[in-house]
Amino acid sequence: MSLYNYAIILKIKHRDQISSIYTLYTYTEGLKDVIIFRNQKFLFTNFKLYNVYFCIFKKGDPLDQIKYILPLYHYFAIEQHPLKTIVWEYLSEFIIYQLYSQENSELIYNLLGSTLSQLNNCTEKAILPILLRSLYFLLKYFGWQPQLYTCVKTGESLEVTKTFRYSNIGFSASYGGLVKLGKIPRHEYIGILTKEEVDIFQKIIRLRSNTYNFRVPLKKFNKILIHLEYLLCKYIEYHIGRRMLGSIKFGKVFVERTQYFDRLNMEQDQFE
């Protein structure tokens, strides 16, 4: 066990009146639980979600404790935005389900750090693409990467180009990604994607920017993204064997915010 590590807080759970359990994701060890007592006032005040830290640990029984923290990056904008905080809860929930494996911990840690930075700086329109891209790469690092560029049954390329000739493509959790329609039993498909949805999904995965400026009307874009998130969530649930509560919470808040901004735009149009 390393006594020092880079760490990102995934979850804080109050244990009792005098202590809380902090679930961290560390650079070399992956998931790690530590206990912090309320009389450790400096830690209780300064060790917060949505930040990146360098930590020195000390052994404890049954859980390790933190001896020293050095804040490295602060992402205050996330805490002030309800949709961004739910995205972080969603990703944290998925990671915590993977038990305490060190496999690919450095890649996952770097992905989480990048996601925090992007969420902190992104516009409203980019939040869901960032979530989709982060979920995709977590699936990849956990060994469940969905195939989005070829048919997993026939091996035929399904990358959307000018010569792409399919209007709809199936998506299967059990087979591991995109499958041409009619190639596997009907019940093995968890959904169907249009050509435009496949194209947007592939572009989101390839893009490294957090702007995601697609030439698609906002209402249509949001509808496509919600469908992609739904299918990706069903894919995740198939592999982990349980429901993703973060997806339910995210969908509810996303719809409520979208409806609110639609009403606001309508009111503004009436005064122009």
From TrEMBL:
<dbReference type="InterPro" id="IPR037278">
    <property type="entry name" value="ARFGAP/RecO"/>
</dbReference>
<dbReference type="InterPro" id="IPR042242">
    <property type="entry name" value="RecO_C"/>
</dbReference>
<keyword id="KW-0934">Plastid</keyword>
<protein>
    <submittedName>
        <fullName>DNA repair protein RecO-like protein</fullName>
    </submittedName>
</protein>
<dbReference type="GO" id="GO:0006310">
    <property type="term" value="P:DNA recombination"/>
</dbReference>
<dbReference type="GO" id="GO:0006302">
    <property type="term" value="P:double-strand break repair"/>
</dbReference>
<dbReference type="Pfam" id="PF02565">
    <property type="entry name" value="RecO_C"/>
</dbReference>
<dbReference type="InterPro" id="IPR003717">
    <property type="entry name" value="RecO"/>
</dbReference>
